[in-house]
Amino acid sequence: MNKDDNIAYEVKGDIGILIIQNGSKNVIDEPCFLDVEYLEDWIISNSLKGVVITGKGRHFSVGANVDNIRQNRDTIGYLEKSLNKGKEILAYIEQLNIITVAAISGICFGAGFELALACQHRICTENALFAFPESNLGMMPGLAGNLRLAQLIGKAAASEIIISGRSVTAEEALEKKYSKSYST
Amino acid sequence: MRELTAEIKSEIKEIVYEFFADECDIPVDHLKEGSKIIEDLDGDSLLFVELIEILKKKYDLAIQLQAVGKYLLKNPAETLAQVVETAYLVYQKENEIV
């Protein structure tokens, strides 16, 4: 059972806090960024009733490690395999029968946004920014975040955000109901 | 292209300085035109993303981050003075900055 170096696990009462911690940008180096078995054991052993996912420092997460994707783009099956593993992780978080909340400040892009979308609730600070910048690199969100966003705000609105790669402010996120609330 | 009046220039400069002072936890009067964002202020490129959003909201600018990103690839803004100059251009040219 492994505990990922880029995720910190804290418990406060019966609430667990998962903290993405990877430099100032909280880059998600690999799609399989989290050990599901460890997570499951941690939830059960601490009798958690809810999990909050957040980022260390000013930002939630800038998203995937683009250099890693570039380096491995010609490695047959690598991206498919790792993205499928990443999808399994987010699907596990999504189906948890305890409350899950993404607490977002600053940048929440790409894979970070996908992780937040896998949670039942999203709350954010006033300076939060959401985006799927993948289209700028000729890619699509790879962890089913496109589908989750479409479920939340509808296919047309989700397509516009994904295809344009534009950023969405906390205010718009609240208006479009990506986020439940925001505060300064 | 929007007109960049002396008043707006001064306001944008003030916004930029106050933003970096606040985010980098440095008194605004300690900031210098030559202050380097990464080396001196311990900042990162994401600060620029946030700054653009502030300007976008304040002046109702039609500016996409991708456009600024493309501009910065050819014209890096490493110092505070360069950030201010880029902010002026963003105000004036919006998406036509590239």
Structural class of chain A: alpha/beta
Distinct helical segment count of chain B: 4
Q: Considering residues with a beta carbon less than 8 A from a beta carbon on another chain, report the largest interface and each chain's count.
A: A-B, 17 and 11 residues
Pairing-aware structural class of the strands and helices of chain B?
A: mainly alpha
Order of helices and strands of chain A: EEEHEEHHEEHEEHHEHE
Overall form of chain A: globular
Structure description:
The complex is a heterodimer of chains A (184) and B (98). Chain A is of the alpha/beta class and 184 residues long. Helix content of chain A is 38%, strand content 24%. Chain A has a 6-stranded mixed sheet with strand order 1-2-4-6-8-11. In chain A, helix 3 runs parallel beside helix 4, helix 4 crosses helix 5 and helix 5 packs across helix 6. Chain A starts with 6 loop residues before the first strand and ends with a strand. Chain B is built from 4 helices and no strands. Chain B has helices spanning 6-23, 45-59, 65-74, 80-93. The chains are: A alpha/beta (184), B mainly alpha (98). Chains A and B meet through loops of A and helix 2 and helix 3 of B.
Describe what is shown at a glance.
The complex is a heterodimer of chains A (184) and B (98). Chain A is an alpha/beta fold.
Which secondary structure elements does this structure contain, and how are they paired or packed?
The complex is a heterodimer of chains A (184) and B (98).
Chain A: E1 7-12, E2 15-20, E3 27-28, H1 36-45, E4 50-55, E5 63-64, H2 66-72, H3 78-95, E6 99-104, E7 107-109, H4 110-118, E8 121-125, E9 129-131, H5 145-153, H6 155-164, E10 168-169, H7 170-175, E11 181-183
Parallel strand pairs in A: 2-4, 3-5, 4-6, 6-8, 7-9, 8-11
Antiparallel strand pairs in A: 1-2, 9-10
Helix pairs in contact in A: 3-4, 4-5, 5-6
Chain B: H1 6-23, H2 45-59, H3 65-74, H4 80-93
Helix pairs in contact in B: 1-4, 2-4
